[in-house]
Write a structure and sequence with these properties.
The chain has about 475 residues and is α+β, with helices and mostly antiparallel strands. It has 3 domains: about 280 residues, FAD/NAD(P)-binding domain (3-Layer(bba) Sandwich); about 100 residues, Alpha-Beta Complex (Flavocytochrome C3, Chain A, domain 1), CATH 3.90.700.10; about 80 residues, Fumarate reductase/succinate dehydrogenase flavoprotein-like, C-terminal domain (Methane Monooxygenase Hydroxylase, Chain G, domain 1), CATH 1.20.58. It contains 13 helices and 19 strands. It has a 5-stranded mixed beta sheet, with helices on one face. The protein has a 4-stranded antiparallel beta sheet with strand order 11-14-13-12, with helices on one face. A 3-stranded antiparallel beta sheet has the order 2-4-3. Strand 6 and strand 7 form a beta hairpin.
């Protein structure tokens, strides 16, 4: 198990409950992953006026005819049980005075179905509790402060990992839960480590990646100094009545429309006025509902009870990733991926708010069941895989070039909310390998759909409906229809 965010922790717990011996490799100490910062909740149809079918409909509509419906149906059907299981593991979800789950409303949802823990502190509550469960479980060994630098492949199968200290771990199956890549962009809501390391590991080992051009930009990231720039103001505040205002103090968008629509509306306002932000007005929102948001804003010198919050879009979530089926299986046998580093096709071209945390748990449980079914690798095959081929003097587990400020700025400029062929061709020569892959995939999608907007191809092309761009090692993007 590689990665100790929400997906990695839960998958490790599920695999250990199935009787597997699990080694969890984490670059950071437990409870310090990117999931810690997640303000959104889990989307699940748990109320009397909701259903998995309604949740599915909202997911498909938000995904702009690019959703893999089989994956979306799995998520919507199995989300309520995921919430229940987390409760059994000790996660305390917010409840009303009658003891029922207190459900929030977010953009693109037709019902209140967002389950929170501690309001906007859901991520830290989940990670803290799951970290405690993992630390105490006798079937899970945790290696903190260690990085995987190579996936070990024997024949056509992943049989283990190589660590940054030269250590080797052989395994019947490897599960990557290394997070996304939105921190590649210069303006981002993500912590610095979210740069797609797991995607490059999988790509180097021969696994296919998919939909790398589909990156969601969150419309309400703070524009400011004092360390607040890029701080995400959760969509839930708009669900409780916060509004977006232009320079004259007028609303200009339906705040609960899907994220791609709201982000583009904000960008159009900024372009029309030359302003660096628009105003998010949460003065009529009960601050007790979002204590962490209010506290962070006040630390940055913004009083949300009296002032408008300056916000603008920022790179937030990668819908693409390591191509997997609905059991988390990658195209390389023995390799699984879950969470934001994976791409099941669930999110299509625009992720429905709060489906991502739910994805961690629904597909984490499925990946665990699939992974534990694999037999231990043949020792001789592993040993053979570790021996370099005659004449091969390449360093084993070498790192990609470091991500430069210039690459991050170029990605924001040429593959931000709007793109065109000239900018993407320039970006396809960038020194960083994942930046090049993103540019290559964006060039091949000659249309505008959801989070991917081409100035030179402004219309949606039906030829891309329900299809996904996959790219393998050394190849060009291939358009596929997934079952």
């Amino acid at each position: 198990m590689v990665g100790a965010g929400a997906a990695g922790l839960y998958t490790a717990v599920c695999a250990a409950r199935e009787g597997a011996r699990v080694t969890l490799v984490s670059a950071t100490p437990l409870a310090e992953s990117s999931s810690w910062w997640a303000q959104g909740g889990l989307a699940a149809a748990v109320s009397a006026d909701d259903s998995p079918e309604l949740h599915l409909r909202d997911t498909v509509v938000a995904g702009r005819k690019a959703v893999r419906e089989s994956a979306a149906r799995v998520l919507c059907d199995e989300a309520p049980e995921a919430v229940a299981d987390l409760g059994r593991l000790g996660v305390r979800f917010d409840a009303d005075r009658n003891g029922r789950l207190a459900l929030g409303l977010e953009g693109g949802h037709s019902r209140r179905r967002i389950v929170h823990a501690g309001g906007a502190a859901t991520g830290r509550r989940l990670v803290r509790q799951l970290s405690a469960v993992v630390a105490e479980h006798p079937g899970i060994d945790v290696l903190e402060g260690r990085r995987v630098v190579e996936l070990i492949v024997a024949g056509d199968r992943c049989v283990g990992v190589r660590l940054d200290d030269g250590g080797l771990i052989a395994s019947g199956a490897v599960v990557l839960a290394t997070g996304g890549a939105a921190a590649l962009w210069s303006r981002t809501t993500n912590p610095p480590g979210a740069v797609g390391g797991g995607l490059l590991l999988a790509h180097a080992a021969g696994a296919a990646l998919a939909d790398l051009e589909l990156v969601q930009f969150h419309p309400t990231a703070v524009v400011g100094s004092d360390g607040a720039d890029g701080f995400l103001v959760t969509e839930a505040v708009r669900g409780e009545g916060a509004t977006l205002l232009d320079a004259s103090g007028e609303r200009f968008v339906d705040e609960l429309a899907p994220r791609d629509e709201v982000a583009r509306a904000v960008q159009r306002q900024m372009a029309a006025t030359g302003a660096s932000s628009v105003g998010l007005d949460m003065r009529d929102v009960d601050p007790a509902l979002f204590p962490n948001v209010v506290s962070a804003l006040r630390q940055a010198g913004i009083d949300p009870e009296r002032q408008l919050i300056p916000v603008a879009p920022a790179a937030h979530y990668m819908m693409g990733g390591i191509a997997t089926d609905v059991h988390g299986r990658a195209t390389l046998a023995g390799l699984h991926a879950v969470g934001e580093c994976s791409c099941t096709g669930l999110h299509g071209a625009n992720r429905l708010a709060s489906n991502s945390l739910t994805e961690c748990f629904v597909f984490g449980a499925r990946a665990a069941r699939s992974a534990v079914a694999h037999p231990a690798p043949d020792a001789a095959a592993v040993e053979s895989a570790l021996e370099p081929a005659p004449g091969d003097k390449r360093p084993r587990g070498s790192k990609p070039p470091p991500l430069s400020a210039a690459s991050r700025e170029a990605l924001w400029r040429h593959a931000g909310l709007e793109r065109d062929a000239a900018g993407l061709r320039e970006l396809s020569a960038d020194p960083h390998p994942l930046v090049r892959l993103i540019a290559t995939c964006a060039l091949a999608r000659t249309e505008s759909r959801g989070a991917h907007q081409r100035r030179d191809f402004p219309e949606r092309d039906p030829a891309f409906d329900a299809r996904h761009e996959t790219i393998g090692a050394g190849g060009d993007p291939v358009l596929q229809t997934w079952a």
